[in-house]
Design a protein that fits this description.
- It is built from 12 helices and 2 strands, in the order H-H-H-H-H-H-E-E-H-H-H-H-H-H.
- The protein has about 300 residues and is mainly alpha-helical.
- Helix 5 crosses helix 8.
- The C terminus is likely disordered.
């Protein structure tokens, strides 16, 4: 017993000696060397871009706010937002179908994913643009029953409709997996507790499950939105005058290919920065519950004190 007490006293003395020792921060020389090398490389790249006359920055400045470029920029923005809206709504519906206990709905959702995730987006855009070759007349109705109307495909499947169909339907396939993973991340006990309180399935989904799943859904959705912004450049193959196609029309006339591509790239970077900031604030909004801390309990006045304190 006495030996144990002596050992404990020695440990306490050693700990006190360690506490008195000054804290010496580690010197991360490798980090500083790597940072210096990267700064030199970055400075070299910037200097080469500024001093290289082949970049023709004066031409870039001339066309930054050209009416054709700005018109293509607006087309890119609305096409991104419209296609992403279609993708989110359709993806949510397909995710719910995949989580359904109905085998028919689940099979239809799996077939949709198989088709639109299994074929390239470029092929889908060209297919929708040439839909009139397969269906010159589009009839809305049921296999057995009255028809709701017949439409001319060449008239109604315009380049804008083809772009929205291609981008929106393709995005819906990927968004469905994002939404499904978010919904499955919520414990089943949350649903069971809400149903035990008498809440309907609709209220359980939109008042209990979805708000908790948004923390999982928003980060990849933000990436998909930024990806959609850049993916809209593919619609240039069907002659939709978005940002890239507007730049192409200009440089095919004046042969200033590199400066016009730089103009388009700068505008893509500006839009990407705005969307990144928006994603950051949305993540903070839906993740605010994770930042809450419980208040520290004040010590009780009548709490017993240790002897000898």
């Amino acid at each position: 017993m006495a030996q144990t007490q002596l050992l404990n006293r020695q440990v306490v003395r050693d700990m006190r000696e360690i506490e008195k020792m000054p804290v010496v921060p580690l010197k991360h020389r490798g980090r500083w060397i790597a940072a210096a090398v990267m700064m030199l490389v970055a400075a070299g790249l910037v200097m080469s871009m500024v001093t290289n006359p082949r970049f023709e920055w004066n031409v870039v400045a001339q066309y930054m706010f050209d009416p054709s470029i700005l018109s293509g920029l607006l087309t890119t923005v609305w096409l991104t937002l419209a296609a992403m809206t279609i993708g989110i709504l359709l993806g949510t519906l397909v995710a719910l179908m995949r989580l359904s206990q109905n085998p028919v709905l689940e099979s239809i959702a799996n077939g949709y994913l198989w088709i639109f995730r299994g074929t390239p987006l470029l092929v889908q855009l060209i297919f929708w643009f040439n839909l009139s070759a397969l269906y010159p007349k589009i009839t809305l109705g049921f296999p057995i029953g009255p028809n709701l109307g017949t439409f001319d495909a060449n008239t109604y499947i315009t380049v804008y409709v083809a772009a929205l169909l291609g981008l929106g339907l393709n995005e819906g396939a990927y968004m469905s997996e994002i939404v499904r993973s978010g919904l499955k991340s919520v414990p089943n006990g949350q649903r069971e507790a809400a149903e035990a309180l008498g809440m309907s399935s609709f209220r359980v989904m939109f008042r209990v499950i979805l708000p908790q799943a948004m923390k999982i859904i928003i980060p990849p959705t933000g990436n998909q939105l930024i990806g959609m912004l850049k993916t809209t450049s593919l619609v240039s193959v069907i002659a939709l005058e978005e940002l890239l196609y507007s730049a192409q029309l200009i440089y095919t006339a004046n042969f200033q290919t590199i400066p016009l591509l730089i103009v388009a790239s700068i505008w893509y970077l500006v839009l990407t920065t705005v969307l990144t900031l928006l994603q950051h604030f949305l993540e903070r909004h839906f993740g605010r519950s994770d930042r809450r801390t419980l208040p520290t309990a004040a010590p009780c006045d009548d709490a017993p004190t240790a002897k000898g304190a």
